[in-house]
Structures are given as structure tokens and as C-alpha cells.
Amino acid sequence: AMITDHFLVTDRVAVITGDSRMSIPVMWASADRTTWEAVPLPVAADMSVRIEGVVATPTGLLLALSRDQRSTTFWSSTDGVAWTQVSELTDAGVEALGVFPTDAMGAGGGLIAAARDRVLTSADGVTWTDTAVPELAGDNVVAVTGTADGRIAIVSYVPNEYDSSVTVGTPVVG
To answer: For the chain, first and last CA: distance in Å?
Structure first.
């Protein structure tokens, strides 16, 4: 059995990521959305990582992998199969990866990486900039996205409770 964490379909590729029953991150890619190929994560087989998100960018895909609560690596791909590391945050354990709509950030859109106490934005996935962190109702970040008017929306929850909260901050772009 597998729990699907992320499902992404672009005009070129579809990618599904998740955790298997043994909590081992897994990823599949498909160019035709019919035939799926298991894709090895771009890290050593014995390295423990967590998939924090995969998003579409103007040049392909961006994948966020965290090794612990303090560091995250970002990987780019044009096909969902071959991945190249583009950046690493050694002081930020990202919990979610999202995007701004293109009309909020210009022609290419923008990227958002979020954790409980830190939010970063990037135009390219290589250079990340700290931005204002909205006050979150929960302790754990589940998802993040950007709005057309330049705000960051974060879904968070408190462990052992059944409610999630959505927090929308003040505009950070525009």
C-alpha cells in the first residue's frame, strides 16, 4: 500500500510521489500518463529523506527533499526521471513546496517553501529569500500556495487534532 503525497501533471510529464507502507519515499513518472516508471530518488539509497513537494516550473519540475528538520535539497528535472540538485538549504527544514500563479510573479511565476517558523520564496529554485511568516494556527505545515494578489496561503494543523487551519498572509509580491 502507498499513501500518495503529491500528484503533478504538466503538458510533458506526470509525477506521483508518496510513502510506501514502510515509510520509504517513492516516485513514479509517465510521459503519456498510461505507462508509469518507478524513479529512484536522487539521493544515496541508504539516505533517509522525505519528499516535501514537487511543482511545475517554466523549465520543468522542482522537487524538495528534506533529510531532517534542518536541511532541504532542491532538484530540477525536465522529464521527472533525471534529476539535478540546484540548491540546498542547510538551515531550513522545509515542510511544503508551492507556487505563485504566473500573474502574481510575472511571466514565470514563483516558488514558495514553507516550514512552521520560516517561509522562503524563489524565482528559480536556486536562490531562496526569507519572507514574512504569517501567524499559523497549527504546528505542522501541510501545504503552501501563492495567490494571484501576491499572498502566501498555508495549511497547517496541530498534531493529534482533526482540524486544519488555512492562514493567508499579507501580500509579499506585487
So the answer is: 43
Closest listed residue to residue 151, CA positions, set 93, 115, 98:
98
How many other CB atoms are found less than 10 A from the CB of residue 149? Answer: 12
Backbone angles phi, psi at 23, to 5 degrees: 60, 35
Which tens digit of pLDDT belongs to each residue from 1-56?
A: 345 566 666 666 667 666 544 456 778 788 787 888 888 888 776 677 788 888 88
C-alpha cell at 74: 532542491
Tell me which amino acid residue 97 is: L
Q: Phi, psi (5° rounding) for residue 136?
A: -95, 145
Query: CB within 8 A of 162, min separation 6: which ones?
Result: none
